[in-house]
Amino acid sequence: MASKPRIKVPKSASAGEVITIKTLISHEMESGQRKDKDGNPIPRQIINKFTCTFEGQMVFQCDLDPAISANPYFEFNAKVPASGTFKFTWLDDDGSVYEAEAPIEVK
Amino acid sequence: MQLTRRNVLGLTAGAAAFAIAGGRISPAMASAEDAEKMVMDFTGGATPAEGKITLTAPEIAENGNTVPVSISVDSAMEGDDLVESVVIFADGNPNPAVATFHFTELSGEALATTRMRLAKTQNVIAVAKMKDGSFFMDKKQVKVTIGGCGG
User: Which residues form the Sulphur oxidation protein SoxZ domain (chain A) (predicted)?
Assistant: First the structure.
């Protein structure tokens, strides 16, 4: 249901620098409020959790409610202590997990 | 159409029925009190103070389906001066909860941007929970031209 996520992380940073990360994933985020043309409610299906970790340590996490727009977009900051990899995880209501990674190099 | 007694009566009844139907508030819609209650649930009954947190949202949103919203909290994000989480509520949506952000020392700055749905013109509320147990709040009214809840 969701397509490959898009992530923007700088390729390099200086140690301790605070960088900005942007992520976007395609997902309908069906709110559960809408009805189909026969008047039956369309069941809710959203991404309910987004997590960003750096080398296993939590950086940023968001619990999403149906009021988040389709194709959820996040922009947040992260402190880069050393070279490593950012891992991003999106959890779907149906149990699917969408993952992505982005490395960063400290000069 | 001639203005007979029968016609006038019919029109008046129709207009009255329309006014009732139009003015009826859908029971699915949350009220400001619900949002306030959710704020209280989050703070554990404490009234959040003003300041520290800044909520940025457009004054007028043409499309309620994607309304950009940003929060930023004035904090060093180190030691005890740390923002643990920030909750966003929209007090006129069917469900006031919008999102909860969790921050850590690795966040560097307590700052986040996302896009939300707004069903109608309403207040957007952001509440920050600090590590020392204090709470801060900011509120903005967003005028919505086209609601974002489908139907």
Answer: 7-102
Q: Report which secondary-structure segment, H or E, holds A103.
A: strand A97-106
Collect all residues of chain B within an 8 Å Cβ-Cβ radius of residue A68. Answer: 98-99, 114-117
Judge whether B74 and B100 are in contact, CB under 8 Å: no
Residues A95, B35, B104: CA angle, nearest 5 degrees: 55
Q: Which residues does chain B have within 8 Å of residue A65's beta carbon, measured at their own beta carbons?
A: 95, 97-99
DSSP conformational letter for A68:
B
* pLDDT at residue B15 greater than cutoff 80: no
> What are residue B69's DSSP bridge partners?
B114
> pTM score > 0.95 for this model?
no
Q: How high is the ipTM of this complex?
A: 0.92
CATH of A5-106, one of 2.60.40.10, 2.60.120.470, 3.40.50.1010, 2.30.22.10: 2.60.40.10
Note whether A76 contacts B100, CB cutoff 8 Å.
Answer: no
The values of phi and psi at residue A5, to 5°, are -70, 155
